[in-house]
Specification:
- There is one protein chain.
- The protein is about 55% helix and about 20% strand.
- By secondary structure, it is α+β, with helices and mostly antiparallel strands.
- It folds into four domains: about 55 residues, no CATH class; about 110 residues, 2-Layer Sandwich (Tetrahydropterin Synthase, Chain A); about 55 residues; about 35 residues, no CATH class.
- The strands form three sheets. Strands 6, 7, 8 and 9 form a four-stranded antiparallel β-sheet that branches. Strands 3-2-5 form a three-stranded antiparallel β-sheet, with no helix packed on it.
- A hairpin with a 5-residue loop joins strand 7 and strand 8.
- Helix 3 packs across helix 5.
- The protein is rod-shaped and about 185 Å long.
Length: about 290
């Protein structure tokens, strides 16, 4: 009896310790009875079980990040790009998760990675390089997330996010992109030069037209002013002639003499009795 009491105490302590278990806020817990799941809705705290009959298995409740290795994917243009992406998921139904995967986290990661990879390859194959690096990438990720969430509902998990961290071009694609950019820039530059030459021709033609119009207007105004000046000069000459006809005739003759005998070496053979020398004759008579 002396030795039986300590054994009973130890047994009681052992049974007591194996009759309780705790569930943390970051955990899901499944209670089994002889290998069958009998409860999966434990709240965080202290719970009880039957020793040797019930056993408990715990699973992660928090969001799990599956960081994928960068992989080469082909676009609709048959251009390979290296895609670095990740998947965020969590267990929302521990019972369904255990039934689908036997609670094997490695199997879940492998299956999730395989399906997401295949869907992502399909999405890249449907789009061009410019589309996968533009705003359409957000639309592609939303479609991929929706599809993945539907596929894994039977697994008892919720795919929260599928995100591309970066897309790197291979050396071949980089060269192709640079060549295309250079071609586009060259075409754009040629177009600008063509537009510049066309505009330059229009400006020159308009300037030439304006010059011709200005010259024509100036010539017209000059002819008009010359005509007005000649008419005014004739009017002045006429008025002067009417005031003293003899003096005006003498003045005009002096201008003619000055024009005819411009230098000392000028020689003119004329009849001295002509009208041109009438004032010389008058002075000689005087």
């Amino acid at each position: 009896m002396r030795f039986l009491l300590p054994i009973l105490i130890v047994a009681a302590v052992f049974v007591g310790l194996n009759s309780i278990f705790t569930v943390k806020e970051t955990e899901h817990a499944l209670k089994f009875r002889l290998g069958e799941v009998i409860r999966a809705d434990f709240e965080p705290g202290l719970h009880f079980k039957m020793p040797f009959i019930n056993n408990v298995r715990k699973m992660e409740r928090r969001i799990i990040t599956l960081d994928m290795r960068p992989e080469q994917m082909n676009t609709a243009e048959q251009k390979f790009v290296e895609v670095d992406y990740y998947v965020k998921w969590r267990i929302v139904d521990p019972r369904a998760y255990y039934v689908a995967t036997n609670g094997d986290m490695m199997f879940t990661r492998s299956r999730l990675a395989q399906l997401i990879r295949n869907d992502l390859r399909d999405e890249f194959a449907r789009r061009t390089l410019s589309e996968v690096v533009s705003e359409q990438r957000r639309e592609m990720m939303e479609e991929l997330l929706e599809r993945a969430d539907e596929r894994f509902q039977d697994f008892g998990i919720d795919v929260i996010d599928v995100r591309i961290k970066k897309i790197e071009l291979t050396e071949e694609v980089l060269n192709s992109v640079f060549e295309r950019m250079e071609t586009q820039r060259t075409e754009f530059a040629n177009e600008l030069r063509s537009l510049g030459r066309e505009r330059s021709e229009r400006i020159r033609a308009d300037a030439d037209r304006q010059v011709r119009v200005l010259l024509a207007d100036a010539e017209r105004d000059a002819q008009r002013l010359r005509g007005e000046g000649d008419a005014r000069a004739i009017e002045i000459y006429a008025q002067a002639f009417d005031q003293n006809r003899e003096f005006f005739s003498f003045w005009r003759s002096l201008q003619a003499y000055d024009t005819a005998f411009g230098t000392e070496n000028d020689i003119m053979l004329m009849d001295t009795r002509s009208e041109f020398f009438r004032f010389f004759d008058q002075q000689r008579d005087d």
